[in-house]
Inverse folding.
């Protein structure tokens, strides 16, 4: 699939740290059941899995907890395996990560920790297909920053055939039906864990292994921090508040950035898609302190934004992220009209449905075959989008019947097109026409100058 920007672009300078933390969401499970303790082996720098399920080598010293339900809290250090997901882990506190087997005939899962060394554990699976592993306080205290540690769940070929394993005698990862070049990469000690996990999952997923893996990145933090829900609102002033275990007086930075980032030139004015503010931690009770700060969002376009609060201090690191919707009120005010040659577009008669209320798109526009839409940003072939006055866009099917009214948001100006599609402009550049195999699959019209 290809992507185009139908209106504007945004600089990516200075936002990479925010993007690295967008997926920090606590979830998972724990229950009041007896724990099956795992006996740790020696504390060699690079250690291996014993082939007895439930045995782990140092430094993972894991505890298997046959547990399934929990209510996460900022200090709980609980998470669920999520492919290429990311989690903050509070250093010096035990951390439990849970998962569910894709096939309930499997009775064992192999879990790898890549954190400058390689550690593995064979984990028994509960009858309902769930499993969990707990890293002890010593292990979490050594986790790196910036999501450089990886924990991997390796699912075997049914019932329990692991094609990739760690060999304690040679100190090498071995694999059957795995290309030599991939094994060479995964055993190269010069690679960071983030690169090592890529090779390891290539090995596990190699054709013929019938194994699969799920990778979750871990980020060690020094304190927990959460953000109170932010209700949708118009551009203006956004209040960002929450609780934290950071000490009183700790300065915090607040970053608000559109989720629909895109390449741009150096000269691009990002003030309509990025804003920032500050806050300071104030004293609370029982180790729970508070903070509150404001961000001037008056220049931001309508759209969904990620909101990140962080210390920005390498000696005392904590951060959290959430989402907030900024929606400018619609209006009946007329706009400065672009010149549109409607006959050039060869459209059917457009039948406006005034009863449809505007909604925010779930993401960038995606053009999909008929019957394949699962959310409101996935539009079928032949769709016509007419963005006019009042900050709204009306969306019509190929016969001209309106089926959606959407806010003219950042999401509305990003587009994913089918492979092989041709992108053309029409009506003096005020309309975008997407064709596939000679057939128009989307027409997008900008009636107002500068989107107003």
């Amino acid at each position: 699939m290809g992507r185009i920007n139908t209106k504007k672009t945004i600089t990516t300078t200075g936002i990479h740290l925010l993007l690295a933390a967008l997926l920090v969401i606590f979830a998972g499970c724990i229950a009041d059941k007896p724990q099956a303790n795992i006996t740790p082996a020696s504390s060699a720098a690079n250690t291996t899995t014993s082939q007895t399920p439930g045995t782990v080598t140092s430094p993972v010293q894991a505890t298997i907890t046959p547990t399934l339900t929990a209510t996460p809290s900022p200090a709980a250090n609980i998470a669920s395996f999520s492919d290429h997901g990311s989690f903050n882990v509070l250093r010096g506190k035990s951390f439990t990560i849970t998962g569910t087997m894709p096939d309930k005939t499997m009775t064992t899962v192999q879990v790898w920790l890549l954190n400058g060394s390689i550690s593995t554990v064979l984990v028994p699976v509960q009858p309902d297909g769930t499993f969990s592993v707990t890293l002890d306080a010593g292990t979490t205290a050594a986790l790196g920053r910036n999501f450089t540690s990886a924990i991997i769940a390796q699912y075997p070929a049914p019932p329990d055939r692991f094609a990739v394993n760690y060999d304690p005698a040679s100190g090498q990862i071995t694999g059957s039906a795995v290309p030599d070049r991939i094994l060479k990469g995964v055993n190269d000690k010069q690679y960071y864990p983030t690169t090592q996990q890529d090779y390891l999952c290539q090995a596990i997923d190699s054709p013929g292994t019938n194994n699969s893996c799920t990778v979750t990145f871990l980020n060690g933090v020094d304190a927990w921090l959460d953000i109170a829900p932010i209700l949708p609102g118009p551009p203006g002033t956004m209040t960002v508040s929450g609780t934290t275990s950071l000490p009183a007086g700790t300065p915090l930075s607040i970053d608000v950035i559109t989720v629909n980032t895109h390449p741009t030139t150096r000269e691009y004015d990002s003030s309509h898609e990025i804003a920032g503010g500050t806050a300071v931690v104030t004293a609370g009770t029982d180790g729970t302190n508070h903070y509150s700060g404001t961000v001037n969002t008056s220049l931001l376009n309508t759209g969904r934004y990620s909101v990140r609060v962080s210390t920005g201090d390498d000696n005392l690191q904590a951060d959290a992220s959430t989402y907030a919707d900024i929606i400018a009120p619609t209006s009946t005010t007329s706009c400065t009209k672009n010149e549109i040659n409607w006959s050039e577009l060869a459209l059917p008669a457009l039948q406006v449905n005034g009863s449809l209320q505007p909604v925010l798109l779930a993401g960038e526009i995606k053009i999909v075959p008929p019957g394949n839409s699962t959310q409101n940003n996935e539009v079928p072939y032949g769709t016509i989008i007419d963005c006019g006055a009042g900050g709204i866009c009306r969306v019509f099917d190929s016969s001209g019947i309106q089926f959606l009214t959407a806010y003219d948001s950042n999401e509305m100006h990003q587009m994913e097109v089918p492979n092989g599609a041709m992108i053309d402009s029409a009506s003096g550049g005020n309309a975008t026409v997407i064709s596939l195999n000679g057939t128009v699959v989307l027409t997008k019209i900008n009636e107002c100058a500068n989107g107003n």
